[in-house]
Amino acid sequence: MKPVIEVHNMVKKFGDFVANDNLTFSVNQGEIFGFLGANGAGKTTAMKILCGLSKPSSGVIKVAGFDVYKQTEQIKRNIGYMSQRFSLYNDLTVRENFRFYGGIYGLSGRQIKDQTDKLLSRLGIIQSADKVLRDIPLGWKQKLAFSVAVMHKPTIVFLDEPTGGVDPVTRRQFWELIYESANEGITVFVTTHYMDEAEYCERVSIMVDGRIEALDSPDQLKKTYKSASMNEVFLKLARAPKVVI
Amino acid sequence: MKGFIFKEFLHIFRDRRTMLILFGMPIVQVLLFGFAITNEINNARIAVLDEAKDEMSRVITDKMTSSGYFELATVLQSRDEIESAFKKGQVKMVVVFEPDFSSRFVKEGQAAVQLIADASDPNTAGLLTNYASAIIRDFAMNLQDQQKPPIQLRTETTMLYNPELKGVFMFVPGTITILLMLISAMMTSISIAREKELGTMEVLLVSPLKPWQIISGKVVPYIMLSFINALVILILSYTVFGMPMRGSLILLLLESILFIVMALSMGIFISTVSKTQQQAMLLSMFVLMLPTILLSGFIFPIANMPLPLQWLSHIMPSKWFIIIIKQIMLKGLGIAYFWKETLILAGMTLLFVGMSVKKFNIRLA
Questions:
Q1: Is B10 in contact with A96 (Cβ distance < 8 A)?
Q2: pLDDT digits (tens, 9 = 90+) for A75-96
Q3: Alpha carbon distance B237, B234 (integer Å)
Q4: How many CB pairs lie under 8 A apart between chains A and B?
């Protein structure tokens, strides 16, 4: 397995505040990597750096083989992104959304058409292709947003809390989509609040106060922390007694 | 890039409210400003108290009522009735001829007409008394001419560029300015803020598109639409209100594009400092609309403002654009006469683009 994300001693400071304190980890190709942490633990900051939206203060970081300091252009071409706020246009039809995002990533008209048909039939909603997005239920929108994010066949897809506000059944279906993409070789980097989702990941890192406190497979983590569920693991780590200055 | 612009047009055309603002408002505004808000006086109701009741006073009264400015509402019999006529709101002005009006005029060479105006609306009162004095003066002049050639001093007033003092000539440039400002700046700032609010901006930023491509993709449709709007307003003012077009149309359109781009860069700047659509809208309203209306010289003459406000008016881009429009349309002048104003607008554009870029980079760092 070759790593597609390599992070060595990444530090990000905002003035005196250290948002990311010496992070080191790597993610392999085709892996589903869970990036957990409480709000404010520094997840979003780290993810922004990996997506080329923000520059780290120091450290060596490579995404899809490209350097985050100098090659953000190439990085952006090779990643897909789906944000917690579902990111399609409500006043465009499903097909128009696909066409727009496909165009942004430089796909040809032919490719866009093929990919749209393929992804929509996989979701089983090809008949709704010309519906305006506003009229489509939230659960479907989220799956569509994911399909759009992997439309240009990226090396890595970043999912920032992709399942916020969705019922468990839809969440389950959403994860099936994620598995399918991972099987096709797309690396999935996902942040989430739901600990049951953490169980679906192959490996999980847990951030507390800007540092990675634990990084392993969910089974290993449960053993190490003698917990029955990821939820317990998370609580033990996040609520561990801290020295208050 | 092409796809981006296409998408932006779809946004605009699918949203009825946006369409209404874009195309309904300009027409309504121009017609409103053109017809309703005007400084001209037509058929103002006046009363006459003729204590002389002679030939001369009657001729003057006739002259006034036939001028088109005044309409004789009532004839008063005594001075006591003056006050009540005003109180009832029947009339805007009362003309009083003193007894022995014509005999004094002939014998002593001077006689008095009293003009009493309702100054609860000072502008109108001023205009009414001006019109009335002009008519009376004119009458007196004619009379003197007929009698003997005395030594006389005459003032002759010529109103250049707008001889009929049409209010429309004043309002059309202002309206074009306000509308272009509103559409260009407010609509772009709102549409960019909307992408931020929806979270689609994040996705765009993560995509291989460069920031300038995102921004121009958002802005190009509005440049086109604003330009079409400018044309509509010009055609309306030309056909409906008889606004002259003495200078070069091409020059005017080029200057309009410059102003549109300036307003767009303002809109972009506003969107970089606001997080939500509402914030963008409020900011546009207070930062752009109100000062544009109040301080650009559109409604209130800049020369009459207190000094600090006059200084403030210099940083209003709309002030300079209004000057340019008037120079071209009314005076028919060329670029040589307003290169300074043009340069100021261009400078402001650069300033706002620069500030937006800086702000944008800070956010990304």
A1: yes
A2: 988 999 988 776 788 888 999 9
A3: 5
A4: 68
